[in-house]
């Protein structure tokens, strides 16, 4: 031990204050701190020569100051130190403050509010509530939560990137995926391409927002290493730019995705199929819209009509304007006009309007009642095609049901039976008259035309796909003709498995086929390729509604990508991991 050199910690001596130093840290290993500049030195510097050298080099003008001067500086230093300690919180509290700022930023993005609302409203409101419900001391702790607009933007970007990372991992691990895309312009006239993706994850079909970019789909897919070869479906609105044979989006995607099945949005197809109608029905529809516009487009007329409806005790006080781009508009406009037909007739008593006599015309009113009924049914059909997780079989079943209903209603009309049309039936019962033959023939022609048009836009599914919808029923040779011999054998084996039949009755169709993929890979592979594609662009339409709400004329420079992702996604960002990676400081 004689050759070992042990260095013991230096001790602080009170007389060092005359050199401008006090101490911090434990008594057994103190560190000198300058009371002038608050610089902290190492324990080895606790020597008069080193402390004097600091005073000479950093504060040479204070060498001649008396001890009392440094005592005053010490008191100032201790006062500042206590003030800082009084306002400081622990590292754990800072971590919770960062986590809180992430969660508030997530709520701001999900509700589509401006980023400034965190600092302008949410934090002051939270402090007021905590102050009233708990106490002022607890409210002051909220001051360390950073909710400035820049911080909120960074938090949203972090969470959106985390969600995208999770989504990409899921897509890459999925056997297949399908896309639905649509394009529209925002408030700045910028063309945005919105895309949603359908993929398999944990034995279920999931639908998620993929991106909103200025028409750069392939760049996004390549940059994120998403394999086009796995794409089995692409749903579009049927516009020429999307489905053009030579340079449309579908053609270009088909070049890199050989398994692709292009899908024309079934909601758009249904809307197109219902546009055609006999001339006299079209005339009544146009006159109804013109009547509504006469009242609604003039503020004074609209107010007077509202007052009249209120005085008459009507259920509704206003008519509805028609707009062609809204799928459900015609049905709602006609239904409201029919319900307020008596109020409209009274309103036109002292008004000069070329169509005022229509509301005293039995033929015109009976036609209006029929149009209100039929478009109400078509609205119901349209709504049934919307939503998430809709498969091609569900769409086909809804369309087939409507076509058969139209055929049945047509036969009833031929027998003067109008019970299928509630408004028309009530109108005829109230007026105690029979419907004119010209109206009956128009109704019959319209019903036949609807069935023909729907069949034109929605051809019957190939019977060879029926086994996918229900593999447990007996299928004839025509149904299974598209299957190889081994696949037919597997289908027979599957149809006789009673345990799988119970599972089939309790699960979603696509989930069932994913569940048995390991046991029957060939059959499941064919089934999923048909079930995976979207049937509509409904999610894109809802996405554009969210985009319009986010990118207003007051926020037209906003990069909406991150906000839109958090607003539309169902994937939860990993806030715990993001918080742990963040510097726990109130300014962050």
TrEMBL record:
Taxonomic superkingdom: Eukaryota
Matches recorded under InterPro entries: RNaseH-like_sf (IPR012337)
Protein name (record): DUF4371 domain-containing protein
Organism: Gouania willdenowi
């Amino acid at each position: 031990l004689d050759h070992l050199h042990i260095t013991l910690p230096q001790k602080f001596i009170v007389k060092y204050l005359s050199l401008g130093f006090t101490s911090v840290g434990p008594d057994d290993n103190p560190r000198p701190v300058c009371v002038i500049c608050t610089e902290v030195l190492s324990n080895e510097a606790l020597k008069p020569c080193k402390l004097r050298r600091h005073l000479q080099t950093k504060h040479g003008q204070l060498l001649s100051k008396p001890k009392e001067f440094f005592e005053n500086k010490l008191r100032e230093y201790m006062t500042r130190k206590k003030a800082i300690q009084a306002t400081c919180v622990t590292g754990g509290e800072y971590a919770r403050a960062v986590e809180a700022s992430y969660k508030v930023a997530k709520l701001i993005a999900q509700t589509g509010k401006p980023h400034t609302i965190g600092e302008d409203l949410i934090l002051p409101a939270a402090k007021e509530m905590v102050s009233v419900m708990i106490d002022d001391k607890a409210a002051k702790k909220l001051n360390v939560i950073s909710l400035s607009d820049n911080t909120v933007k960074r938090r949203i970007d972090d969470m959106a990137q985390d969600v995208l990372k999770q989504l990409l991992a899921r897509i890459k691990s999925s056997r297949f995926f399908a896309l639905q895309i649509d394009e529209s312009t925002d408030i700045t006239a910028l063309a945005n391409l919105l895309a949603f993706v359908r993929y398999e994850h944990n034995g279920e079909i999931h639908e998620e927002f993929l991106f909103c970019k200025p028409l750069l789909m392939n760049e996004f897919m390549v940059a994120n290493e998403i394999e086009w070869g796995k794409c089995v479906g692409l749903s579009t609105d049927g516009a020429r730019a999307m489905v053009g044979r030579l340079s449309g989006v579908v053609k270009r995607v088909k070049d890199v995705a050989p398994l692709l099945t292009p899908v024309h949005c079934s909601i758009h197809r249904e809307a197109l199929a219902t546009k055609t109608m006999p001339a006299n029905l079209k005339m009544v529809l146009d006159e109804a819209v013109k009547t509504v516009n006469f009242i609604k487009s003039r503020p004074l007329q609209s107010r007077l009509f509202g007052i009249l409806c209120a005085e008459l005790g009507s259920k509704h006080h206003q008519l509805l304007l028609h707009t062609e781009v809204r799928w459900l508009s015609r049905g709602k406009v006609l239904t409201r006009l029919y319900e307020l037909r008596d109020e409209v007739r009274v309103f036109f008593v002292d008004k000069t309007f070329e169509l005022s006599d229509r509301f005293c015309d039995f033929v015109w009113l009976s036609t209006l009642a029929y149009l209100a009924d039929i478009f109400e049914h078509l609205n119901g059909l349209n709504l049934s095609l919307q939503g998430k997780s809709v498969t091609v079989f569900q769409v086909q079943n809804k369309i087939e049901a409507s076509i058969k209903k139209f055929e049945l209603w047509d036969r009833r009309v031929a027998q003067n039976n109008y019970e299928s049309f509630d408004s028309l039936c009530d109108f005829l019962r109230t007026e105690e008259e029979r419907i004119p033959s010209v109206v009956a023939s128009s109704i019959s022609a319209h019903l036949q035309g609807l069935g023909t048009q729907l069949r034109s836009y929605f051809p019957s599914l190939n019977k060879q796909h029926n086994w996918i919808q229900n593999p447990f029923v007996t299928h004839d040779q025509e149904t299974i003709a598209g299957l190889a011999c081994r696949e037919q054998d597997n289908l027979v084996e599957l149809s006789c498995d009673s345990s799988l039949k119970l599972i089939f009755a309790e699960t979603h169709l696509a989930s069932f086929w994913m569940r048995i993929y390991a046991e029957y890979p060939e059959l499941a592979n064919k089934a999923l390729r048909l079930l995976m594609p979207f049937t509509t662009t409904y999610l894109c339409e809802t996405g554009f509604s969210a985009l319009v709400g986010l990118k207003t004329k007051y926020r037209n420079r906003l990069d909406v990508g991150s906000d839109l992702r958090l607003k539309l996604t169902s994937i939860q960002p990993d806030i715990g991991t993001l918080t742990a990676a963040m510097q726990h400081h109130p300014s962050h």
